[in-house]
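Objective 1b. Sequence-to-structure analysis of histidine kinase.
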Amino acid sequence: MKPKPQKDKINKRLLGLLNQTQLRDQTGSWEWKQEEDVFVWSDALFALHEIPPTKNNELSKADALAFMMPRDKVLFEVQLAALPPEGETRFNSRIKAKNGEKKKIQVTAYRLTDEEGQEVVFGEYRFVPVAVKQANSTHHIAALPVANGNGHTKIGDGPADDISPEIAAQLRAAAHLQALNNSLQEKNQQLEQLNEEHASFAFIASHDLREPLRKLQLFSDILRKQHADALPDDVKEYLLKIDIAAQRMNALVDDVLVFARIQEHPEPPEPVDLTDTLAQVREDLYDAVTETCALLHPFELPVIKGHASMLYQLFFNFVANSLKFRKPGLSPVIIIRGLVRQPWEWPGANPAPAHPWLQLSFTDNGIGMEEKYADTIFKMFQRLHNQNLYPGTGMGLAICKKIAAMHHGYIDVKSEPGKGTTFTCYLQAEVVEQ
């Protein structure tokens, strides 16, 4: 290995050769340090502008673009803004050197990622000799920057001298739109990766996490039943607690798995009779309904286009929630009401649907809660009450919130301590039959 001074000497010599080559070819290279908004020019690029190099070869963005014709500054900034990741753009421009000479140049710009994962924007200016120009020497640029199939921005022909402020504004708008499209593509890629991670998690949850839980429950059950006579009472109690904890963990895995799988729902919406959905929930919760002497009163539940399994889960979670948080000594009364609303009645922040939509509410006479917890209860693993008094995973309402979002809606809650709770779902699901 050569000593560092020798390596620096070689690098300096190579840089000198590069500058000599650029001077001969009348080109110059540049780099844009985005965080500092500073340009670094090669010595040859300074020579192309007929000015001496600055300290560290750096120029502010304003100084670097000061040599360009006013309209070409707009084009330069538009092209940098529209330049996609790992992309390239090439366009013609004009500069006025320090000595007053006007020069036509071809600008090339790249946006790449270096070995350390940092984004780098750099390129070159290349002088275009007068002899190369056509009879009509008017400078040409693109009317609008257009991305080709390779992700590069290609510039077509259009007289720069004809660019009005309105056209400049259109250029900026087009660049902004291109930048937004680039950002959207990146977000879509991230979303696809996230969905793949969710799918992987669902697989792990349904296999790798369940297997040790099954063994834990199996062995504790064997010990309690087959060796009951040989075990002290305190050990029996410990085994019972192990079994209860394993059951709770199994329930948590189930709920997290449901949550993870909601947005993986591939099938399109289909007609769902919500009266039938409630009947199925009532049947599945028969023991809890009977034990608590609960009364379920449905009103005006229509047929809507939605995801049947999700809507079942929504009904199940809200009804089970009302059964759980009932007042001691009082039979739960749960009113489920569906109201068909018109597009102009949509209260949400997102755009209103073009068709009638559903306002679905669940009202109970339970213990209620303070309004300040209205947002907290919809977060994952959040519980307001002691696990021993009201067992659960803290996932039920988070699942409901996600199901509402999958139907392009949201959930509102009104409640007072001791006066019950009303959950209202605003769903953009199309009403098929009232």
